[in-house]
Design brief:
single chain; alpha+beta; BirA Bifunctional Protein, domain 2; 10 strands; globular
Length: 250
């Protein structure tokens, strides 16, 4: 089955879900990555007025491919830099990157281990008519206290998996290991091993990690045959996906 949405951009999708969520849970705040290009950039729904919102679990809206014919929506977590290096990242912007116990990253690890989040993910993987993905990327970051826009960026690793509810395994779709910092992911495809791997990442105080659990939805157009297409509204998307993940909007 092909699942489509009528939204044309991540921005439209974000605002549509924000309107639905407003009748269900506490207010979520819409945030763009690039405020000057709102119709082409990534968007978030954040459970706080604070910005940046690195510490929070949040809903994420992005293009699903380079052709911009699909949209990827997800629950999104970030791992910051360890407090032991806070003197290196000493300016105000640098201090915002420092991980502490208030970050939802720790709740992510705990609830994967105690199965609260794991059971939600397995339910979604089994019940959704499309693949549930886990995307992880990470690497070293430039010091924002001494940022040089002309300096070469650090290489990052990228891993994209689909979750198989029957075997409880993460099936690798593709990966790119430019830094080699996330190779622990390739050592086990078992979902129950993920907390240990994330703890290993946490122990590297210099490394930033982004983690998503999400789905890809085609943007409806004339090429999508109605015979094989299900069109989800914002309410459908909320009820079938987002509402199950609201406990981690903290």
């Amino acid at each position: 089955m092909t699942v489509c949405v009528d939204f044309l951009t991540p921005r439209q999708t974000c605002y549509a879900i924000e309107r639905v969520s407003a009748t269900k849970i506490d207010k979520l705040v819409t945030r763009p990555w690039n405020m000057y290009e709102p119709d082409s950039t990534t968007w978030w729904l954040v459970p706080s007025n604070n910005w940046p919102a690195y510490k929070h679990g949040k809903f994420h809206f992005n293009w699903g491919n380079r052709e911009h014919t699909s949209i990827f929506v997800s629950l999104y977590f970030e791992k910051g830099l360890d407090s032991s290096i806070s003197t290196v990242y000493s300016c105000a912007k640098g201090q915002r990157l420092i991980l502490d116990k208030t970050w939802t990253w720790y709740r992510l690890i705990r609830d994967l281990e105690n199965s609260q989040l794991t059971q939600k993910l397995l339910y979604l993987s089994e019940s959704l008519p499309l693949s549930l993905e886990m995307i992880v990327n990470g690497g070293y970051v430039q010091d924002p206290c001494d940022f040089d826009p002309n300096a070469p960026g650090f290489n990052w690793d990228f891993y994209d998996y689909t979750l198989d509810a029957t075997t409880q395994r993460l099936m690798l779709k593709w990966s790119r290991t430019d830094s080699g910092l996330l190779t622990a992911l390739s050592e086990s495809e078992r979902l129950d091993k993920l907390p240990d791997i994330l703890r290993e990442f946490t122990s590297n105080g210099w490394m930033w990690v982004n983690l998503h659990f999400g789905i890809r939805l085609l943007i409806k157009d004339k090429q999508n045959s109605e015979q094989f297409t299900t069109i989800w509204s914002a309410s459908d998307l909320w009820e079938k996906f987002f509402q199950h993940l609201t406990p981690w909007l903290i």
